[in-house]
């Protein structure tokens, strides 16, 4: 067993599991839409510690994430597989953006609601520029890798997608209701998530 800490919430992970499958099982706040095809980019994460316990970035990640960002620890949670036993700590892009938006809407005492604007613009701008810089190679590589049908219609299990999204939304609401700084326990497992490889799920 390894310990995966996503957005400050600790959860158990088995060697061989994809980070995203652990996240979905625990309703962690990570974006996902393409059922592990590696094409939607919703599951982008920053690995903060424990990168050595993950598989190296694969073809799908290198097609979309510039080398400089990979070197900084950016990964796709649906492609990164837990290889070693140890602790891995990540912050999802979805949660990073949520925290910044939340800090604008409800700033802490003594903080300006303008403070998050600069980092928010920087993240959105950087992401857009990164994707533009990789275009059209990123799209072409994905078309070759998963095929045009899977690229155009990435969702395989729509029911599971809706179910998992609802659980994530409930979890995010519960998180937002907690006093600042309080850690949440991983919520109970409601539905098993497949560990199938990207082209199998
Ligand atoms: S879930 Fe779509 S790229 Fe990871």
Which key features would you list for this structure?
Ubiquitin-like (UB roll); single chain; binds FE2/S2 (inorganic) cluster; disordered C terminus; 201 residues; alpha+beta; 12% strand; 5 strands; five-stranded mixed sheet
How would you describe this structure to a colleague?
It is a single chain. The protein is an alpha+beta fold and 201 residues long. The protein has a single domain, classed as Ubiquitin-like (UB roll). Helices cover 42% and strands 12% of the residues. The protein contains eight helices and five strands, in the order ββαβααββααααα. The protein has a five-stranded mixed β-sheet. Helix 4 (93-105) packs antiparallel against helix 5. The longest helix has 20 residues, at 158-177. The chain is globular and about 50 Å long. The chain starts with a strand and ends in a 24-residue tail after the last helix. Bound molecules: FE2/S2 (inorganic) cluster. FE2/S2 (inorganic) cluster binds next to loops.
């Amino acid at each position: 067993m390894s310990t995966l800490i996503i957005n400050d919430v600790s959860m158990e992970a088995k060697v061989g599991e994809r980070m995203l499958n652990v996240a979905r099982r625990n309703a962690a706040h990570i974006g996902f839409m393409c059922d592990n095809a590696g094409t939607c980019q919703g599951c982008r994460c920053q690995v903060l510690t424990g990168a050595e316990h993950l598989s190296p970035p694969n073809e799908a990640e290198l097609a979309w994430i510039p080398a400089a960002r990979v070197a900084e620890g950016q990964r796709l949670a649906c492609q990164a597989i837990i290889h070693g036993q140890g602790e891995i700590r990540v912050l999802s892009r979805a949660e990073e953006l949520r925290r910044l938006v939340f800090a604008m809407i409800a700033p802490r005492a003594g903080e300006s609601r303008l403070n998050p604007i600069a980092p928010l613009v920087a993240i959105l701008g950087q992401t857009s520029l990164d994707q533009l810089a990789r275009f059209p190679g990123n799209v072409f590589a994905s078309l070759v890798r998963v095929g045009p049908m899977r690229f155009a219609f990435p969702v395989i299990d729509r029911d599971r997608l809706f179910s998992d999204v609802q659980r994530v939304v409930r979890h995010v609401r519960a998180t937002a209701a907690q006093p600042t700084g309080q850690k949440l326990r991983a919520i109970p497992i409601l539905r098993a998530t497949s560990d199938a490889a990207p082209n199998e799920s």
